[in-house]
Amino acid sequence: MDFSLNPKQLEIKNLAREFAEREFPKISKKCDQEEVFDFELIKKASEVGLNGIFIDKAYGGAGYGYLENALVMEEYWRVDPGLGGALTCVYFGSEMILLFGSEDQKKNYLTPLCKGEAISAVAVTEPDAGSDVLAVSTQAEKIGDEYIINGSKMFISNGTIANFYITLCLTKPDAASRHERHSVIVIEANRPGIQRDKLRGKMGVRAHDTARISFNEVRVPRENLIGEEGNGFHYFMAFFNRSRAYVAAQGVGVAQGALELAIQFIKKKKRKTIRKNLAQYHIAQHKLGEMATWVETARNLVYKAAWYVDRGKIDPALISMSKWYAGEVGVKVVSEALQLHEEYGGLGEFDISRFYRDAKIVEIYEGTKEIEKMVIARQFFKGD
After folding, report:
1. Strand partners, 241
2. Which residues are catalytic?
3. Which of 107, 156, 223, 287 is the most exposed place for a label (fewest CB within 10 A)?
4. Are 126 and 153 in contact (CB under 8 A)?
């Protein structure tokens, strides 16, 4: 069994690391404080081949897999979670178009994403329907050759900056099965009847645009329907079983970044004083040993889950294990790193407060850790 990355994967990982270390520090503080995203970053990432990692080359993507996307995600979050999340979210949701969309939809929507000329958004969460996808009530009524859409979405990544929304809508409310009532429809952001309200003052990932979206009599043509009507739930589950495999890498990245900052702090600031106190020295060593082990364990789990997906083996339990565990590791390692920094953790060159604020979101979005544990446990009772 070979756990090593191949040369191309190592090249992508190193490219992402170099890009993040070169570009993120220039703008990270401003983007966090002002809650904005630098759109030039998208063009720069596209120019070096770090945009649309898993999208087919036929549509301008890099044509790699979800493991490669996880590698990029990890390196970005290692340097700056807010910018890393925003940048890799540029083509978020494109999986559904890639897997189930028509050829025209792939050309019209995927190609601009890969060129850095457009931004996508996934619109599923609602004010009264968070983790329960089947409770989504935004309605798309089919009249003639159009869908008329009414409803609202909440906590939508890229909400105010997206060019289009890949949206879960209720299209067949009377279907006998709850799993056949929804459809996925692409809604362009410039259509009349859309209101976008930016959410400000978030605890973390402030460079990552988040918004509430309202649809009031929004009309879209029937050709904006992805795949078949009534299959929306199944399409979103297929999406989650890919996106969670690489979103989990965010937890690995933020944990790795915090671990490195803690090591640097001890080397620069505490080495002389800590060695005079043997007990304190041993405590620091033990903490760093634990943190490094947690990170490596989470990394192996995430890589395995993404590697399986790239080989067509969709294992929801394994994917949920990686998402839950890596998210938890991110929070634990950042917390321990801050503890090692003592009072310096929020000051000057040693400030890791942004990592502390950003880490928690990985345990919440793309399925809370409670949902992930339920997915894992359900595998034990299949067929009962």
Report:
1. none
2. 366
3. 223
4. yes
Distance CA 53, CA 256 (A): 22
Do 83 and 209 form a contact (C-beta atoms < 8 A)?
Answer: no
Boundary-marking domain end, from 115, 135, 160: 115
Phi-psi region of 367 (alpha: psi -120 to 50; beta: other; left: phi over 0): left
pLDDT at 382: 78
- Residue in this structure with the two tokens 């082990």, named with its chain if needed: 293
Residue 210 shares a structural domain with residue 155: yes
Q: What does 112-173 look like in DSSP terms, one character per residue?
A: HHHHTS--EEEE--BTTBSS-GGG---EEEEETTEEEEEEEEEEEETTTT-SEEEEEEE--T
Task: Indicate the SS3 state at residue 313.
Answer: coil
Q: Give yes or no for residue 345 having a pLDDT over 80.
A: no
**Phi, psi angles (nearest 5°) of residue 133:** -60, -35
96-110 pLDDT, tens digit per residue, is 999 999 999 999 999
Residue 87 sits in the same domain as residue 137: no
Same domain, 250 and 208: no
Judge residue 360's burial from the number of C-beta atoms within 10 Å of its C-beta, 0-12 exposed, 13-18 middle, 19 or more buried: middle
For residues 359 and 272, state if they share a domain: yes
Range of the structural domain that residue 188 is part of: 120-231
Task: Return all residues near 181 (Cβ < 8 A) that are at least 6 apart.
Answer: 134, 170, 171, 172, 173, 175, 230, 232, 233
**CA torsion, points 98, 100, 105, 108, in degrees to nearest 10?**
-10
Q: Which of 246, 270, 235 is nearest to 327 (CA)?
A: 246
11 shares a domain with 142: no
**Residues pairing with 218 in the sheet:** 149
CB atoms within 10 A of CB 1: 2
Q: Are 337 and 352 in contact (CB under 8 A)?
A: yes
Torsions phi, psi of 65, nearest 5?
Answer: -115, -170
Whether pLDDT at 32 is above 90:
yes
134-167 residue pLDDT tens: 999 999 999 999 999 999 999 999 999 999 999 9
pLDDT in tens, 174-194: 999 999 999 999 999 999 999
3-state secondary structure 158-174: CCCCCCEEEEEEECCCC
